[in-house]
Design goal:
The chain is mainly alpha-helical. The protein has one domain. The protein is built from 10 helices and no strands. Helix 1 packs antiparallel against helix 4, helix 5 packs parallel to helix 8 and helix 6 runs antiparallel to helix 8. The longest helix has about 30 residues. About 40% of the residues are buried.
Length: about 240
Amino acid sequence: MKMFKNYPAGSGLVWCLVLLALVLVSAVEALAHGVTAGDKGYIQEISGVMTLPFIYLGAKHMVTGYDHILFLFGVIFFLYRLKDIGIYVTLFAVGHSVTLITGVLMDVSVSAYLIDAIIGLSIVYKALDNMGAYQRWFGFQPNAKLATLVFGLFHGFGLATKILEYNVSAEGLVTNLVAFNVGVELGQLMALGLILIAMGYWRRTKGFMRHAYGANVLLMTGGFLLVGYQLTGYFVS
């Protein structure tokens, strides 16, 4: 992982504004783990194997998951090889699939507010990792791959809780859940593709390393905002 040698006070204004906009949108949109009213009604009404609709729902969930986009932005910030990016994508997919399918089939429900607060903390964690904070504070580099897998596990539990609330038909449930995860993977690849295009242009500029620290500071701030928003919802609901 790259380390920062200098910490500029002002940097990456455009990227900071983009990240801040994503955070504000995520608050308005119930922070990514909700299912829209239209999708909720559709899920409750259908039964049997519905592969393509659930692939679409999974992809839509990922593409509109702003906390995911912030986390993925942090994960690939210093990844340049497609092989490395593929490893992280796979780890997330495995974690998400395990807890989503297990949570729904075993009827395991966890507060969505608490799960989303933990996801917000994962954004904070990754931003600090990118800033080299753990090496300075504790003298070691945490395992980024393990952190990505754990994030996937929590995200799967969060969505499993939502699906349980909507009483999805038991007919074709396993197939539909697998299809949903395929959609999540496709949506993740689309989101990553857009992020990589933007990052590719940014990395070729002379100001990338100069602005990188500031971007991760705002990424961390966004994570804390998500945590505060979700904990507030948990205690007042």
